[in-house]
Amino acid sequence: MFGNLAGEHMAVLLVLVLLEVGTLVLLWRDRTRSQLTKVVWTVVVIALPVVGALGFLVNWALGRLADRLNRAH
């Protein structure tokens, strides 16, 4: 099945897998989100691999930025 994949394809596949796994680890270690939110984001990240992961990462970064701005005032 994977016999005809070139090295570049394997590198891209590895990056995508690391993006997915990293996103899911970050999601499930986040203590500010409810279990339901984590389950929904997990489904989105798995169903829409790149878009879901990037969407969560943008959402996570904006949430952290908003928290920092709220603490500054």
Description:
- With 73 residues, the chain is mostly helical.
- The chain has three helices and no strands.
- It has helices at residues 7-29, 35-47, 49-72.
- Helix 1 runs antiparallel to helix 2.
- The longest helix has 24 residues, at 49-72.
- The chain starts with 6 loop residues before the first helix and ends with a helix.
- The model has no long low-confidence stretch (mean pLDDT 92).
Structural class: mainly alpha
Radius of gyration: 16 Å
Based on DSSP secondary structure assignment, what is the total number of beta strands? 0
Question: Helical stretch count?
Answer: 3
Q: Which overall shape is indicated by the principal axes computed on the Cα atoms?
A: elongated
Q: Show unreliable segments.
A: none
Average of per-residue pLDDT values: 92
* Distance N to C terminus: 56 Å
Helix content: over 70%
Largest sheet: none
Measured by DSSP, the beta-strand proportion falls in under 5%
Order of helices and strands: HHH
List key phrases describing it.
single chain; mainly alpha; 3 helices; elongated
Task: Describe how the helices and strands are arranged.
Elements: H1 7-29, H2 35-47, H3 49-72
Helix pairs in contact: 1-2, 1-3, 2-3
How do you describe this structure in short?
The protein has 73 residues and is mostly helical.
